[in-house]
Amino acid sequence: MINHQPGIFQTIIPLKTRVKAERFSRYQYQRDKAKQVYLNTLAVSAVNSYLNSLGWSTNLEDSDSWNPILQTMMNVADLQVPNYGKLECRFVLAGDDAVTIPPEVWFERIGYVIVELEESLNRSTIIGFARKVNQTSLPLNQLESLTEFPGYLSQQQPVAPIQPITIDRWFKGGEDKDWQEIEKFFPSTLALNFRSPQKAADRIEDRLSSRINRVKPIPFLGYDDLAIALVLNIQPKSEEEFDISLMVCNSELKDLLPKGLEVIILDGDSCPVMIAQTKETKTIEFCFSGTLGESFTVELTLDEQIIIESFII
């Protein structure tokens, strides 16, 4: 049953939602983390129902909160609104006077919707929203009324999708302004290890005998002294199959990567397939194969910042 009045959206939490939350929580070994995932799932589901009732499309499957690996890595409760961005859906329990919003979700959100869960966890009530957040504890009396939310959401500008880099065109002489040749980025002694023919390769015979390397500097706000580079090494195996080596390193090479830097490789369905986190290391490297037309995404996370690079082979 749904109670949908101006300023109120209250609903009984369906059994299937509680079952989904229980399944997600079972991926966690720590009791507190399992509870966090369970309650986050209930909050996201409540906001999903609310948006659907307003006629907005949502995509749970593309939300980080619906991914068991990312649930483990982060305290995340996002809901993807296609073409607009992510809403963060944070829960409070009955009697709370503030909502906790971790720093890792202060960015890349179009808003924060707050859901109150009854002690029995059988009913949820959306109690308000915030446009932006820059504090861990947000008093509930500072939330905007839910009556303002539909208008606020309608004012959001559609977000242009991230344009993926087409790797195959590099073999045909194509260039991308943010990606440099190894020789132009690293010292010559290192570049020798990566160097490859730079001529355009239109014939498959030429492409099979060639190798392409590109590098891009990865900036993180607030880390002016940190120089991270993303290096791609692509070697054709056949006309449609490629071996790909992806390396993350410090641009100075001799320096260690910052602790806590996380790198995730996602397949074309946005499912994580490889993951690594730095401790005391100079490089992170992944090796995999792909076929012409396949896509993959690289996510680099440091503290609360996420940088995304998408590719089509």
From TrEMBL:
Q: Which domain of life is it from?
A: Bacteria
Q: What is this protein called?
A: DUF1822 family protein
